[in-house]
Amino acid sequence: MHAELKAKAKEQQTTIADVGCNKAYFSATALNYLAPHYGNHLQLLFKLHDARGVYQKPCGGCNECLQQPPNHTVGGQATVDVFCFEPSEIHVTSLTQARDALYGPPDGTSKPPGQETKVNFHITQAAVSNSSGIARFPVNCTGNVCSLANSDQQMQEVKITTVDEQMRSRGLPYLDVLKIDTEGFDPAVLAGAYESLANQRVGLLSFEYHKLWKRSRGTLKECVHYLDDLGYSCYYDAPVLAKVSGSCWQDAYEIRRWSNVVCVRRGTAMEEELYAGSYLAKAKRKDSPTKAKDMKSSKAG
């Protein structure tokens, strides 16, 4: 996350769209970089979710709330706008209560006393897909894998929207970060963001990839090529990044195992940051001393 947000240091405002917000631990991780003066946002949210007593795993399915704050933060942010989209009524209720306690209702004109950064946390109860309309969603969803495909539970109607529709209706010129985690429907969300992506109005894109993609019949290869055509380079997100775009694509990458993919606009400082943390850069650095040694030996001969 640090590499992706490092380029924000000289800017004054950041906009994040968190699609499939769940307990908002992704946004909290980003806020630990962008608005550190509040404290550890992950732990602040966890304590409020836990106190409500409706979650079996209030810390998150992978204990996300235990992640330590970063050693390096991004300074100079006057405001951070988080747009949280979540179809589960239980999650939305918990998020709203936590938001009001931590940040207050969204208000672009003021910030809490003593805070250097104002966090505007917008919450919308809606599913995000490739078209607008109405769908049915599980009523009592408290886990991490609920989706529009769960048909064996009590259901309620929820609004469906698209990234492009939200960008237009809210007058958002740019998303610094677009995170997608919709339990297998990430390809549909990407399709509904075509206009925003084609016009380079998304800086960083992160989505989850796993076996649940069978729900939408999408493939990683299709999505990576789609994003490549729109000007985005994609990597498997890991301690050392693996590029999957362009000529780096291999069919072996279609693993359908729980993983994350991160994409950035080509030709940007953020792309340079991702490349620097990739296997490609690591191999190049390792190879450079050998080449230099060979050249020196050749000249000496």
From TrEMBL:
It comes from the Eukaryota. Transmembrane segments: none annotated. InterPro entries: FkbM_mtfrase (IPR006342), SAM-dependent_MTase (IPR052514), SAM-dependent_MTases_sf (IPR029063). Residues 154-233 form the Methyltransferase FkbM domain. It holds the Pfam family Methyltransf_21. This is Methyltransferase FkbM domain-containing protein.
